[in-house]
Amino acid sequence: MTALQTNQLTKKYGKKTVVDSVNLHIPQGTIFGFLGKNGAGKSTLINMVTGLIKPSSGSFEVLGQPEKRLESIQKEIGVLPDYSTFYDDLTAFSHLNYFQKLLKQSLSKQEIIRVLSQVGLEDAVHVKVKKFSFGMKKKLGIAQSIIHQPKLLFLDEPTSGVDANAVLNIHSLIKEIAARGTTIFLTSHNLNEVEKLCDEIAIMNKGRIQTQGTMKQLREQYQQDIVVHIHHRSLSEKEQTQLKISLTELAVKIEIGGDASEIIVQSSELIPQVNKQFVRQDIDVFGLEMEQPSLEEIFLNLE
Ligand SMILES: Nc1ncnc2c1ncn2[C@@H]1O[C@H](COP(=O)(O)OP(=O)(O)OP(=O)(O)O)[C@@H](O)[C@H]1O
């Protein structure tokens, strides 16, 4: 089943089209990364598919249900809350307890404590929210968003403003939640995070989906030159010259060194042919590494 599907989904404010004919298809069980610069339209799209605002046109389905039946599956959806909605005088436990009752859940005391432990708040179960650090509030927010074991979870910037250790904890937690079968829709400005966690990525720009695919597909789509680092046995000056001549047709840049060389090719299919030239000249190759563009480079190169 599809966790989320949008068909020509559009939102206009006056004459301004903020979300423009978006078609997304998110299979269940994926961690889907949703990227875009400030003002690209990400929150507007999320607000439409979670029922907070009405689309101007187009349609969507969440967990197989159309917009008009969104109410019936609200309990299957989790959304990382805005921290301003926390009650400062409640403890983490009371906060979750209150929230689960709102969702008409009937978790036992132990089960609530287990959710708090799951997000790493086991030492803060009875601490009031007003004493929480920012990172602790993020974790409590995640606990709140997963307390009803949603099938689809929207996490908007789950690690922004959180220290490095807590970021790692939150990443492990996101992977655990996904491993249990929850589809995760992750918005983040941290491209490393998205690259590390997400199965599939969509990049939004000025209301439109500019590109969508797995990291591998995005690399293939946006990769131009590939830098290949080759470690080899020591070469004499004569061998270096011969090698350079043999690679001229294949590479756009060739730097042959004594025991390591850097070669730039325009397609990954040329790499075996580069390797063949080394073999042909009886040069032992000890290592061959390919430099892949990061999501950050791909993102920055998009208009
Ligand atoms: N209620 C509204 N009325 C008019 N314009 C709006 C409204 N809500 C959002 N916008 C405009 O829509 C555009 C997209 O905003 P949105 O919040 O969806 O972007 P975003 O991609 O989530 O950005 P960020 O990364 O900063 O959160 C912005 O230009 C914003 O000013």
UniProtKB/TrEMBL annotation:
The keyword Glycoprotein does not apply. CDD domains: ABC_DR_subfamily_A (cd03230). Signal peptide: none annotated. Pfam families: ABC_tran (PF00005). It comes from the Bacteria. Residues 4-231 form the ABC transporter domain. Keywords: ATP-binding, Nucleotide-binding, Transport. Belongs to the ABC transporter superfamily. This is ABC transporter. It comes from Oceanobacillus neutriphilus.
